[in-house]
Design goal:
33% helix; globular; Phosphatase 2c, domain 1; 7 helices; 26% strand; alpha+beta; five-stranded antiparallel sheet
């Protein structure tokens, strides 16, 4: 697999509270690992939350005996939640900090995903398929038929999330496994990208760019050109990449 990751502070924020991790090489019993976390909290607590969560996931996966990908991701995301909760309890200045998190690995032709919050994972071929489901107030409203998907993009409460790492001891995460086809591209991102760039533009940039790095840089540049209202994080991966 070949991947490329990029994170940017954006145009309006003073600090980047996103944290990304991408390894094309084995991490413990997983052949690869991709993670995007979007931290939240006062002062710099969000920055710590996202980093603590990702580091706890990587540490857990690196040392775990479990081989089944979804079980291993489940074990790791709960360890991440515990780590952030414990850090917040130990330091009053970090009380209330939390982070979204989306993580994935590819084993043979199958993609395994865990998601908490509103950072997303897509699979791109001729279309752009959102695999994860946002844990957010507006997503609940869309599913209930109260607003349309288009209205959700500009809803005043679009940033209210209903699940996050570190907010409470009991964690509820979503898990997915998806069959991949040759040529598929995987995109993990924070909402700093999807709030600023329309899906059709993301798909066009990714399909037309000469490399994953070029695509990631153009996606971030486009989000900033469109306002850059939040931190922007992108991981792009090609599971079937082979060196010629």
């Amino acid at each position: 697999m070949r991947s490329y990751c990029l994170t940017d502070v954006g145009k309006k924020r003073n600090m980047n509270q996103d944290f990304v991790y991408a390894s094309d090489e084995p991490v413990g019993n997983l052949p690869n690992l991709l993670i995007v976390a979007d931290g939240m909290g006062g002062h710099n607590a969000g920055e710590y939350a996202s980093r603590y969560a990702v580091e706890a996931m990587v540490d857990t996966i690196s040392s775990a005996a479990e081989h089944r990908p979804l079980r291993l991701l489940d074990e790791a995301v709960h360890a991440a939640n515990q780590a952030v909760v414990e850090h917040a309890m130990a330091d009053r200045s970090m009380e209330g900090m939390g982070t979204t998190l989306v993580a994935a690995c590819v084993v043979d032709d199958c993609l395994y995903v865990v998601n908490v919050g509103d950072s997303r994972l897509y699979v791109l071929d001729e279309k752009m398929w959102q695999i994860t489901r946002d844990h957010s107030l507006v997503e609940e409203m869309v599913r209930a038929g109260e607003i349309t998907r288009e209205q959700a993009r500009t809803h005043p409460e679009k940033n209210v999330i209903t699940q996050a790492i570190g907010i409470r001891k009991k964690l509820s995460a979503d898990y997915f496994d998806v069959s991949l086809n040759p040529g598929d591209v995987i995109l993990l991102c924070s909402d700093g990208l999807t709030n600023m760039v329309e899906d059709d533009q993301i798909l066009r940039i990714t399909r037309q760019a000469p490399s994953l790095e070029a695509a990631a840089r153009e996606l971030v540049d486009t989000a900033n050109h469109n306002g850059g209202l939040d931190n922007i994080s992108v991981i792009l991966a090609r599971p079937d990449w082979k060196e010629v």
